[in-house]
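job 3f2a | input accepted
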Amino acid sequence: MADNLSGTSIKAFIQKVPEWRDKYLENNMCVFKVEAFIQRDWKNPCLEESLCEQSHRRVESLIEQLKGKDEFIHPEDDLEIVYRWGGGRGHNLFAQIKKNNSSDEIQEQMKAAFSVLADGDPVRALEELKRLKYCSDSFGTKALAMRSPESAPIWDEIAKACLRDFTIGGKKVKSYEQFIRFCEHIAKELERPAPRGGGRWYLRDIEMAIFQFGWDHGKFKGRITGELPLGR
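job 3f2a | predicted structure (232 res):
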């Protein structure tokens, strides 16, 4: 499977989205706790459907320590939780952000990002977060996705690799705006009831499926093929 570079059509991928999404959650059981912390929403019903996996004990411990903390008193705590959850190079990137940006700068940009995100503009929210030195697409959108899973999918290297052969209106998918449009298309096409209720699929849940698809195909070798017209 990891050597299959021929790609999977978007139609075939859409049929498997619920399966990929469920498998993602089996492998990332801490994600709802991270979401609940960033949103300060401890009544989040999704918390009941998963526990914290062993590899995220440090994340769970941080969350327990910081419960009840008001937003933006120490916004770097929020970023540390997101970065530790993200794994990989996340901890080193977080250290670089703290080293190269003051607490005031982090607070200012997080406030600005979350404000425009609340107004329904995740693309501009990412631009605000990327004003912080060493904040990338990958980890900037992780913070946004934890804040607003309805509208902000994670735009990381695996998602980018999965869509390397896909086009929208004849153009390669290279921007966060295009990626959001792609996820919105899939959300509209899905027939199975949305897993979080409310009648619609969250874009974060679509992206979970994309990540798991890419991961199971050898991280960077899974491809979703096809094209969306500009009018979609």
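job 3f2a | DSSP finds eleven helices and four strands in the chain.
job 3f2a | closed
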